[in-house]
Amino acid sequence: MAAAAKLVEKDCDAIDINLGCPQSIAKRGRYGAFLQDDWSLLQKIVTAMSQAVTVPITCKVRVFDSIDKSIEYALMLQNAGCKLLTVHGRTREQKGPLTGIANWEHIKAVRKAVSIPMFANGNIQCLEDVYRCINFTGVDGVMSAEGILTNPALFEGINPVTWEIAMEYLDLVEKYPCPSSFIRGHLFKIFHKIFTLEGNNEDRELLATAQNLNDFKQVCIRIRHKYLPFHEGRIHFQDDGMTRCGFDLILPPWICQPYVRISPEEHTQKMELCKQQDNAKRIIEDPDGIPISRKKMKKLRRYLRRPTKPDAVTNRKRDICTNDVCPNPCGIKCAYQLCKKCCQNKCYNEDCFCEGHDCRMYKA
């Protein structure tokens, strides 16, 4: 880490260590939020990097369930040499559908404990949230992640039209090229509300398969052509309830707006309901009303897929090969009631033919 810091020392004003990533890949790679279990290692990393370079070393972290432990964690990083701390008010378990609300109380407590500059992260959906967060926590600045992706003009305090901000972004991409996967990801975030409407499935598919800058621009042009008459008021837009967003604020889908998840409690209830419905579908009973296990059901389905064999074949007893020294069962259609190997030997030695085994081995 210290060697990596020295490589970029002359090209930046500070070096940030991301200790907040909660993704599974971070767990497998032992980095991000999963390093918060090894304080001694983190202390060595921050100290080594601070001593190796002249630019400040900063850290971004997530909180623990306990406020006291979160404070102790922040003080450890400060003492190790961290010059600025960004605190995300969620634990590493709060991710995806279980993200929930960030806890500003934790951030406020950490702010009072540390003496270095500090930023807050979490619950920033609009510019007013920035001011509320600063006033409540007393931090020196605010960081936004998901909010700024869905509305890149968040810190300007406006909600721009999606196709305008998207085209502005594509102009920057033209000037500073980047991989198409990066572009696709950003545009999906900007157009996230529009793509929840079924009528835009074709545009969504076009964006998903876009390969170059012209394809990406074509998506913006198509969406602009479709929604500009609504934006200008020439056509009335029928709100079907999909554009409603917290506090009864209604923003049309072509306007950049926050991405609002359902609460973790709602998600858990929804998953439980889906599980119950799935289990109900799987329960199959026999004629006596006894549930059939999945293993038995699998065997029954496999049996039903087999073609029905003639009675003469299915009822025939599998006799042992008539060769006294062979313990193998004889072939069902063998003319000599031998197993395949014995039948091949007989046909070869006696210049005979078995239609059942299709043995045509004659001596030269």
UniProtKB/TrEMBL annotation:
UniProt domain DUS-like FMN-binding: residue ranges: 1-188
Pfam family, one: Dus
Keyword flag NAD: yes
Keyword NAD: yes
A GO term for molecular function: flavin adenine dinucleotide binding
Gene3D superfamilies hit by this protein: Aldolase class I
Cofactor(s), names only, from the UniProt record: FMN
Catalysed reactions listed for this entry: 5,6-dihydrouridine(16) in tRNA + NAD(+) = uridine(16) in tRNA + NADH + H(+); 5,6-dihydrouridine(17) in tRNA + NADP(+) = uridine(17) in tRNA + NADPH + H(+); 5,6-dihydrouridine(16) in tRNA + NADP(+) = uridine(16) in tRNA + NADPH + H(+); 5,6-dihydrouridine(17) in tRNA + NAD(+) = uridine(17) in tRNA + NADH + H(+)
Keywords: Flavoprotein, FMN, NAD, NADP, Oxidoreductase, tRNA processing
EC number, as in UniProt: 1.3.1.88
Family: Belongs to the Dus family. Dus1 subfamily.
Protein name listed in UniProt: tRNA-dihydrouridine(16/17) synthase [NAD(P)(+)]
Organism lineage: Eukaryota, Metazoa, Ecdysozoa, Arthropoda, Hexapoda
